Amino acid sequence: MDVKKLVRALWSSAWVGWEVESNWTEPFIFIGLQVIRPLASTLLFPLLYLVGMNFTGQAVDPIYLSYIFVGTAFFTPYIFAAETGGTIVSQDRERYGVMKSIYITTSSLSIYFLGRFLAIAGISLFSTLSSFAAAYALIVWGIGYSMPLVLENLLDVFLALGAMYIGSFAFFYILPSINLLTNKLQWSLTYYFLGLLYLLGDIIFPVQSLSPLAEPLAYILPTNQALNTLRNALGLPTPHNTAAAYLASIFWAALGYFVFKRAVGRARAKGLLDKIGWW
Amino acid sequence: MFTSNWWEAVKLFQNLRHNLKAVYARTYVRVRSQFREPEWVLTESVIPLLIVFAAATLYRVSGSEQLAGFAVLGGAMMAFWDNVLWLMASQFYWEKESGNLDLYIIAPVSKMSILLGMSLGSIINTSIRALLIFLLAAFVLRVPVNIADPLAVFLVFTLTLTALYGLGMLMSSLYMLYGRGAYQLNDILSEPIYLLSGLYFPTIGRYSPFPAIVQFLVSLIPLTFGIDGLRRTIILGQGVEQIMLHIYVLLALTVALIPLAWRVLIFMENLGRREGRLSLRWM
User: Does B98 touch chain A (CB under 8 A)?
Assistant: First the structure.
């Protein structure tokens, strides 16, 4: 495929992704899905922590509050990638029946998924930053708790965001790979992934606090070091390893792409690319 | 005169019998479908458990271990909210997509009987899941259960479910004519309701992080007072006297929501008939 065709296919897929996911023509749905919902997710665990400390009469630790806040706010790109990645097959294959048409174009499903991912990446960046700003304002100025976040190192912020989006790319390819081969998990797979990451991904507590034996996971999963790098760049004293963040994210992204290619091959061989209904 | 009254009584009885049969039939389908794919029971129990474990661990890491029960209870009740959103509110939308709504409309029974059957079936199914979530989480996390007054627990739980499924019936009626928009509205509502209704921490009363006006507004969602009442009776060991406000609010919501659902259902059905939108798909 020449570069011009590749760019055109990518652009078309990203445009479809933007149209399907953003609902920009319906402002209520756009704001609800892209601002209100991520904002609620971002606030849930910091508020749980605050209420817990007040209920038991303990002092709030601003550093830990900020740790939870940054973790939940910047988990949003992973949530977007997992939610769209987890439903894209059921939508395109089962509901609208367009997957077979995309498959027989001169482009490929990998390019189509990359375009859809780029759209999700753009939307999730907007959602993450807007929910970060709104939640920060609500906690600091609305409820009155301090969070010592300062932009100490802009380069590290960009590096951390880069690692995060490479990691979320991995989810965007792994989840559809599974759903291409079975339709039993299309409603649950995303939530298994996200639930496990809430437990093991350094989102609201370091994974070591579950058990010291879990410490290696902090270097294996794509979220842990990426989020810790970001926390450090925002002035929090969190141990981090930027190189490990990239290694883990790139490993998962490469694995995701490989698994996806294999899954498409198997789905084609088993006649699953246009299979509709309960099977 | 006597003959006319007698005939009307017979007709009323037949009508009631038809509607009760419809309630039973709709309940049966819903309960039976669960046993057709039992792996779904496990799936839908394990997913909330992961979040419950995360929330309970956050309580533990921050030194508020004694509140882990709040997260466990929230996880169990989350099953009911998800069920109301996805299998009550949107049910007529799914039925429309699959072509069943047309059959419901032409069936010689009240649509409320179908909604009631859906609710009963959902309550049975979801109670099994919620109990499974509660027992598994309480066992793994060793959450102390402190029930001082079983009657209070029963009252709050029953009233929470009647009010909550009343809301489900109302939403189902409202969603009857809407397609993809209803699906998106559910997506928008899920997380904000998790946050505002206090699934994992109290959002009404002394420890709420929200201002009074927000607390008042979220009290209109039956889940808010329901979870708070269950939290007080199951975890904090309170009795009926301490949760009278909860009982009154849940009772008022039940009394308001179910008749409202009935009125809205009739209105939406008539609107749908006039505009020819009852069997429109893909919108």
Answer: no
Spatial neighbors of B218 by CB under 8 A, at least 6 apart, are: B196, B197, B198, B203, B204, B210, B224
Min Cα separation A107/chain B (Å)? 27
Q: Is residue B12 part of a domain?
A: yes
Q: What's CA B86's distance to the chain center, in Å?
A: 10
User: Is B122 a member of any domain?
Assistant: yes
The residue that leads in pLDDT, B66 or A112, is A112
The answer to whether residue B283 sits within a structural domain is no
Residues of B in contact with A33 (CB under 8 A): 184, 187-188
Choose the closest CB to A49 out of B51, B58, B191.
B58
Query: In degrees, to the nearest 5, what angle opens at C-alpha B232 toward C-alphas B228 and B237?
Result: 170
CA distances from A107 to A9, A88, B125 (A): 7, 18, 45
On whether the CB atoms of residues A274 and A97 are closer than 8 A, the answer is yes
DSSP string, A52-74: HHHHTTPPP-HHHHHHHHHHHHT
A44 CB neighbours in chain B (<8 A) are 191, 194-195, 200
Buried b / exposed e over B66-103, threshold 16 CB at 10 Å, is ebbbbbbbbbbbbbbbbbbbebbbbbbbebbeeeebee
- How many structural domains comprise chain B? 1
In a domain, B282, yes or no: no
Q: How far is A5 from chain B (nearest CA, A)?
A: 32
Q: Which residues span the domain enclosing B207?
A: 2-275
Distance CA B167, CA B172 (A): 8
Do B229 and B160 contact (CB within 8 A), yes or no?
A: yes
pLDDT, tens digit, for every residue of A25-62? Answer: 778 888 888 899 999 999 999 999 999 999 999 999 99
Q: Please tell me the distance from the alpha carbon of residue A116 to that of residue B145, in angstroms, as a whole number.
A: 47
Q: How far is CA A243 from CA A167, A202, A217, A232, A250, in A?
A: 14, 17, 15, 14, 11
User: What is the crossing angle of helices B68-83 and B150-175, to 10°?
Assistant: 40
- Integer Cα distance of A145 and A142 in angstroms: 8
pLDDT band at residue B1 under the 50/70/90 scheme: low
Sequence length of chain B is 283
CA distance linking residue A156 with residue A70, whole number of Å? 14
pTM of the predicted structure, to 2 decimals? 0.90
- What span, in angstroms and rounded, lies between the C-alpha atoms of A204 and A223? 12
Give the separation between CA A23 and CA A25, rounded to whole angstroms: 5
